[in-house]
Amino acid sequence: xxxxxxxxxxxxxxxxxxxxxxxxxxxxxxxxxxxxxxxxxxxxxxxxxxxxxxxxxxxxxxxxxxxxxxxxxxxxxxxxxxxxxxxxxxxxxxxxxxxxxxxxxxxxxxxxxxxxxxxxxxxxxxxxxxxxxxxxxxxxxxxxxxxxxxxxxxxxxxxxxxxxxxxxxxxxxxxxxxxxxxxxxxxxxxxxxxxxxxxxxxxxxxxxxxxxxxxxxxxxxxxxxxxx
Length: 228
Hints:
Elements: H1 8-22, E1 24-30, H2 44-47, E2 53-59, H3 64-67, H4 72-78, H5 82-99, E3 103-105, H6 120-127, E4 139-140, E5 144-145, E6 147-153, H7 171-180, H8 184-188, E7 197-202, E8 205-211, H9 213-219
């Protein structure tokens, strides 16, 4: 008598429903093989050779009360991926202890040469947790900017795949570009005027995007926000 194959869709639904109840706003599953072309050392299989799927969680934007605080240090503390990482660590533990599969909550800090352990942007796009933007970070169509964490696992969960309609550019940004040749983000930080951002919009799509990550990191604290 052979053991019955688990219903992986049910397993996936239970896991994702759990993290959504704990505070995640976005919970998707991506195919790690879609990251085969990213930089060596930042691929899922470089971190977990047995990886079969990657769970991408997004959320934990600062609350209104935190924005209202007169202490800038409050936002400096909560404006990171730490809250999402805590949910990811709990999920990884649940997968290993309850289901018996490998699970790794990828560190949201940086590795050697100040590089991320994983290409979080590519992981989020592959799972449909958002899409790239002219402004730099991954954006979700409903929630906008979200803090990310990624759990790599040998659990063979069904994939969600990338979203069909990119979050960027928004209709208002397209309208502004048609009128002035810039969007709100490229107007504020134009790469041709000492800023970090550049690109064009053609037929409602971003083309020729330019992003000076090193210059941006010198100006904006996002060392612990790996979705850029």
